[in-house]
């Protein structure tokens, strides 16, 4: 019984931390003097509905507030689209399917909850790459509805718990030190 209360308390605290972190970062990124000068970037879902190609373009190549200076199209405030691309050896163009905008938004929220980098080890996959890594035949990676990730310095079970509070489906791989997150469609 004690473990149940501990688990509930932990999830409640993580949910509150997520909410406070997101509110804090939103407030930090658009202060009163900046709000008039900068329009907020389009959300992943807005950009995805406008784009006919699987890449989501960023309004500018301006680095995110935490100092990351990598250029490229942004999936969200902290992730480049390239981080989600298929990493096969040239069997596809990197985009055999479009990434699910809802998944991109929830992974960004996960990143905000921990206020530290989240590393995407696998996003969308072509069938050949999926077979190479031992993915199941109808893997959600094939349709852009899944990603494998970890947060350096944070136990995978904590990452999984917060991901679940955000509405992500999670399969934990504690021995490999990563979590598989997905959106069910």
UniProtKB/TrEMBL annotation:
UniProt-annotated stretches for the region Disordered: 35-72
Ranges where the Peptidase M15A C-terminal domain occurs: 78-181
Keywords: Membrane, Transmembrane, Transmembrane helix
Biased composition range(s): Polar residues: 44-55
Transmembrane segments: 12-31
Record-given protein name: Peptidase M15
Originating organism: Eubacterium callanderi
């Amino acid at each position: 019984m004690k473990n149940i209360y501990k688990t509930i308390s932990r999830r409640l605290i993580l949910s509150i931390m997520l909410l406070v972190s997101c509110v804090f970062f939103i407030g930090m990124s658009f202060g009163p003097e900046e709000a008039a000068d900068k329009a907020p970037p389009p959300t992943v879902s807005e950009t995805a509905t406008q784009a006919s190609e699987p890449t989501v373009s960023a309004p500018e190549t301006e680095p995110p507030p935490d100092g990351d200076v990598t250029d490229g199209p942004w999936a969200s405030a902290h992730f480049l689209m390239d981080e989600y691309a298929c990493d096969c050896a040239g069997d596809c163009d990197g985009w055999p399917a479009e990434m699910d905008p809802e998944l991109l938004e929830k992974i960004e929220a996960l990143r905000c909850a921990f206020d530290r980098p989240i590393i995407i080890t696998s996003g969308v996959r072509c069938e050949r790459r999926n077979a190479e890594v031992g993915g199941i035949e109808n893997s959600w990676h094939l349709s852009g509805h899944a990603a494998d990730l970890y947060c350096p310095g944070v136990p995978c079970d904590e990452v999984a718990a917060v991901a679940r509070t955000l509405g992500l489906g999670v399969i934990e791989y504690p021995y490999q030190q990563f979590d598989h997150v997905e959106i069910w469609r």
